[in-house]
Design goal:
Radius of gyration: 36 Å
Mean pLDDT: 82
Strand order of the largest sheet: 10-13-14-7-15-16
Distance between the termini: 58 Å
CATH architecture of the largest domain: Up-down Bundle
Strand content: 5-15%
Number of strands: 16
Number of domains: 3
């Protein structure tokens, strides 16, 4: 019923839960087992009570019957009270374990997701990723809170009842086992058939949610291009596929219950008939108890048959939830098993101050940063001041093996220089900046930062030293001040306001209803695109990095606002190494070096005047002979 792969998932899940609750989980399991065992013993008391009545009927002495029956009933009542206490305990503990496990699993997923490389998010549908935290976690909740306890309790009850059956009568036990064997074969056949469809259902559900998210984000584009009918058709195709997989999965699961119920009823009748025949034929009993076959054996056996078959049926009812839960758990563990971003760097960025022997490392923020370079060969440590000298030597790169997008790229950016990238979409401009941040690693060549190979620099420290303003802005739920402070969490309000003034954002912020305390939601939906871009620039300004990357930073700003921003940017860029990507050539005219890229190669380099004098592609772009796109 559960494949080898699924068995591995179950084992891993149980180990994970045990690591979360090493004491509480065993106690809960013990309570479930105790409760299940107690629920199996009424048949023993029934046999004893019927035996007492049967014996008194044969002897004609009824004097001691009532006292014995009362004793049995009192003992059974005590057992039931203990069972009630155990049931209450395991239900309370199970609630804590279930929600606690989900909480810790979500934390593990999210924390692991933060360590994943950018490539993962570039190649996976965001809606499908969200499905891990919603649908898959919900199927796991149902499996832990309901299916696992029911499965364990039913398993214990089946084993306990089987032992009692063998103790009283092997003949009738064989009849029950044959019937249950038939039930198990059907359960395996039908349950195994539904497993693959439930796994497909979870996968299709993730795709459908991803499509819905995409359509919601692109609703304006859909309206503008009157693409509503096509969107509906695409959704219907995905929804139909989801429906088919869900229908097949639930078809298998839903026919199982009625089949097993009817087999259980037939088995009850067969046991009654066989028991009657054994009584009429005075067949010698084979049992551990050594008791002869009588009414006191056959009647409790009918009750045990119901219990036995009923618990097998209970297990079958959980197959739906178990298979869905295992499918969801498999996807969750798949996300948790994704390889985190590799970082072999050991050169760190640290605060420094002037000491007697030059720069010295210190804990306090001084505004002076150095690269702390431990040398593995002799154990010595050297310090290199962070200046923003970036050099690329013969760099090649491909997102997919065999499909290079950069060829033999060499760039020299001295501290304080402004380097601009110009070229058509897809020429490789943004790819170069992705390599500087080590969002991706180069295939060949070298990149040096202040003379240090960037592969030796820890990625977190490297990215701390780089400020980047993207074409697509991302603002987070919180106040305007919070969003600016995102660039440096220890920045004071005064530093955030200064950064906003420097970027030109202060003017519109002070006109907002609550100024810097204005609350933003939905990626700053209550702001214009230009205002959002100004905030993202202010966020970089407060980080005060020595190297800045401006990827179409002013593309969403009107000409008047651009002039305001440009003045602030000029002040911000002073003394820093700046890489600029722009389609508006007016924004790169004052660059020290302009690089013209075409299909991943640098075809021209020089300043504005030099490139115009060459009358090459830059000249044609600037004079409007042809467009970038």
């Amino acid at each position: 019923m559960v494949s080898e792969n699924k068995k591995g998932i179950v084992g891993r899940l149980l180990k994970t839960m045990l690591s979360f609750y090493p004491v509480m989980l065993p106690i809960t399991i013990a309570c479930i087992i105790f409760n299940a065992v107690i629920s199996s013993v009424p048949s023993i008391f029934m046999q004893n009570i019927i035996a007492v009545v049967e014996e008194s009927w044969k002897s004609g002495d009824w004097s001691a019957v009532s006292s014995k029956i009362i004793t049995f009933v009192m003992i059974l009542a005590i057992f039931y009270l203990l069972s009630l206490a155990a049931g209450f305990a395991f239900n309370q503990l199970m609630a804590i374990i279930t929600q606690g496990t989900l909480k810790k699993m979500r934390e593990k997923m999210f924390n692991g997701m933060q360590r994943l490389p950018i490539k993962y998010f570039d190649t996976n549908n965001h809606g499908d990723i969200m499905s891990y935290y919603t649908n898959d976690i919900d199927t796991l909740r149902q499996m832990i809170s309901q299916s696992f306890p029911q499965l364990l309790a039913s398993g214990v009850m089946v084993f306990t009842v089987f032992c009692i059956m063998v103790y009283y009568c092997v003949w009738l036990t064989i009849v029950v086992v044959l019937g249950v064997f038939l039930m198990l074969m059907i359960t395996k056949k039908v349950g195994g058939g539904s497993a693959k469809f439930f796994l497909r259902q979870q996968s299709e559900l993730g795709k459908t949610e991803g499509f819905i998210e995409e359509m919601m984000n692109g609703q304006k584009v859909i309206k503008v291009f009157c693409h509503e009918e096509e969107s509906k058709a695409d959704f219907d195709r995905l929804n139909d596929t989801l429906f088919e997989e869900s229908r097949k999965a639930n078809q298998y699961a839903n026919i199982l219950g009625p089949i097993l119920n009817n087999i259980g009823n037939v088995l009850y009748v067969v046991v009654a008939i066989v028991g009657g025949l054994l009584l009429l034929g005075n067949v010698p009993n084979v049992s551990v108890s050594g008791l002869a076959i009588g009414i006191s054996i056959v009647v409790p056996f009918l009750n045990m048959t119901k219990q036995f078959a009923g618990n097998i049926n209970q297990v079958s009812h959980q197959i739906n939830a178990i298979v869905m839960g295992l499918a969801g758990t498999q996807r969750i563990f798949g996300l948790m098993d994704e390889q985190p971003e590799q970082d072999d760097g050991y050169v760190m960025l640290v605060n420094a101050r002037e000491g007697e022997n030059g720069l010295e490392e210190c804990e306090q923020r001084t505004g002076t940063w150095v690269w702390k370079h431990p040398h593995q060969a002799d154990g010595s440590v050297t310090y290199t001041k962070l200046e923003g000298d970036v050099q690329l030597f013969d760099v090649d790169f491909a997102y997919e093996e065999g499909k290079p997008v950069l060829h033999n790229i060499s760039i020299s950016a001295k501290p304080g220089q402004k380097v601009a990238f110009v070229g058509a979409t897809g020429a490789g401009k943004t790819t170069i900046t992705n390599l500087l941040n080590r969002f991706y690693d180069i295939a060949d060549g070298k990149i040096r930062y202040d003379g240090i190979n960037i592969n030796k620099i820890r990625k977190a420290d490297l990215r701390h030293s780089l400020g980047i303003v993207l074409q697509d802005t991302n603002l987070f739920t919180g106040t305007v001040m919070d969003n600016i402070r995102y660039g440096r969490l220890d920045a004071t309000d005064e530093e955030c306001i200064a950064a906003a003034k420097l970027s030109g954002a202060d003017d519109f912020i002070t006109r907002l209803p609550d100024g810097y305390a204005t609350f933003l939601t939905g990626n700053g939906a209550n702001l214009s695109q230009g205002q959002r871009q100004l905030l993202s620039i202010a966020r970089v300004a407060v980080a005060d990095p020595p190297v800045m990357i401006l990827d179409e930073a002013t593309s969403s700003i009107d000409t008047r606002t651009e002039a305001i921003v440009q003045r602030g940017m000029d002040a911000l860029m002073e003394g820093r190494t700046v890489f600029v990507i722009a389609h508006r050539l007016s924004t790169v005219k004052n660059s020290d070096v302009i690089l013209v890229l075409d299909h991943g190669r640098i075809i021209e380099r020089g300043n504005h005047e030099q490139l115009l004098a060459q009358k090459g592609q830059y000249y044609q772009l600037y004079t409007g002979a042809f467009e970038l796109e």
